[in-house]
Design a protein that fits this description.
251 residues, homodimer, DNA-binding
Chain lengths: 251, 251
DNA sequence: GCCAGATTAAATGTCAGACATTAAAATGTA
DNA sequence: TACATTTTAATGTCTGACATTTAATCTGGC
């Protein structure tokens, strides 16, 4: 593990990269203790604060964890699905909000991914997951539910569908995509009528999952996607109209 | 933005979280300059090194970038797809290697995701993407290609297929999944016969993409998945057998 | 001999102040 | 005005110290 002190790149970034590469290459294995900060500083011929900045970078990626006290130190972290998942949601959310990813593109991606796990869910869904879907459908039908709560319930419903595939890797990828879209979904106002329509589609999906009817799940997801996009467009149109009116008044 | 100095959590972690939350909430917008390190230290009532550790954490997540010199400082970063993509590959790769995710599970996830974009690719693939697929198929047929080069070409081929969907979000999600599987794929030895079979399947896929025949793409991907798993199993079986023989000799 | 409590030691967490380096902005000059 | 120089404000790095945490060790009493 070596760094180039003459590079224009931050020393702490270089050190972080060196250690990260060692972890990825398997030279440092899970739960192995890294040398102490003082030893690392010695090894790389830098000061302790610089080493610490490097370690914090790695900690931010959940690659290491640190323990204080005697026999403490930095340890290679076993990356857990939950950690990776939380990071992915953050990243995806920011990507969508910062890159002017249109609602249509995000929506298309989300439903494409979701449909990918439909056949597997049809095969493997557990009674537990089915129960979750039914419970969320029931919640979505209750009057007085805020738009935000409705969205949250929607996420839970779709996550249950995705988890039904019984594949951790898929759940990790898809749940991130679904959740990242929530801020966009939260912009939509769900009228009583649109909620009713969505609940009906959700019910169809749950029924199809229970009946292990993969093509039906797929078809209903297509319908749901179309309806979601329609709703989003009406919101956008309404806003544009409002803005135009305001503009007209000012002028 | 406030922190709790009495918490057992690292101050730098708290500060990082406070700033990250502000970014996610939109209180800090893209390209906006954060206060200088000295000002932040003052605001949070901590020392500069502590602030710096917090900023390095955020930099590791590509949430901010820093510039030296007068009118330099830390700026909220516009998260680019490439950055997010690189991070996702790292994370996914480690997840697979550290969590004893079986080849089957990873493979199933990958092909499920890939099939999700097949219909879109059939519709939208550009001549450019088709050309890439053909070129990679040709390369895969050349004798003397190392297993690693074969795998790399395989990744490029599948990426072209995924990119054909013309959806950045999908590309981001899928390319990460495909690439993360490469270390697992690299364990497979591709015999001349198995390469031939894979090239044939790839050709079928390229033909179907060109003909915009979505169901055919789907079906071929299913075949390819089955074949890949078969290959992987034979490798695992061969290894187990070898290990058993060795064990037998020792005993 | 063994256990509970006190002590020690080794590590990370934090601070203060200094200097080095960078790069934009301000200034001076032809 | 155009160009070279100086200033300045920021990050990058270093040194050394102290605070805090925690496991291991030592110690005294039973």
């Amino acid at each position: 593990m070596k760094i180039d002190p003459d590079s224009t790149v931050d020393l702490s970034a270089q050190i972080a990269k060196a250690i990260r590469d060692a972890i990825i290459a398997g030279d440092l294995i899970v739960d192995q203790r890294l040398p102490s900060e003082a030893e690392l500083a010695d090894h790389f011929d830098v000061s302790r604060p610089t080493v610490r900045e490097a370690l914090k970078r790695l900690a931010a990626q959940s690659l290491i964890r640190t323990q204080r006290g005697a026999s403490g130190g930095a340890f290679v972290n076993r990356l857990r699905f939950e950690d990776a998942y939380a990071q992915q949601v953050t990243t995806s959310t920011l990507l969508l909000s910062m890159n002017a990813v249109s609602f249509d593109v995000a929506c298309e991606a989300r439903y494409a991914l979701e449909r990918a796990c439909a056949p597997l869910s049809a095969q493997r869904r557990t009674p537990d997951q089915l129960a979750t879907m039914r419970a969320e459908i029931h919640r979505q039908g209750q009057p007085g539910l805020t738009d935000e709560a409705f969205c949250a319930s929607d996420v839970t419903f779709h996550r249950a569908l995705v988890d039904g595939a019984g594949n951790k890797v898929l759940s990790y990828q898809l749940a991130g995509a679904v959740e990242a879209m929530q801020p966009l979904m939260n912009m939509i106002t769900f009228t009583a009528r649109s909620r009713e329509a969505i609940v009906a589609l959700h019910t169809d999906i749950a029924d199809a999952v229970e009946a292990q009817d993969a093509p039906k799940i797929d078809a209903t997801l297509v319908e749901l996607e179309a309806y979601t996009r329609e709703l989003a467009h009406s919101v956008v149109t309404a806003r544009a109209q409002k803005a135009a009116e305001k503009e007209h008044k000012t002028a």
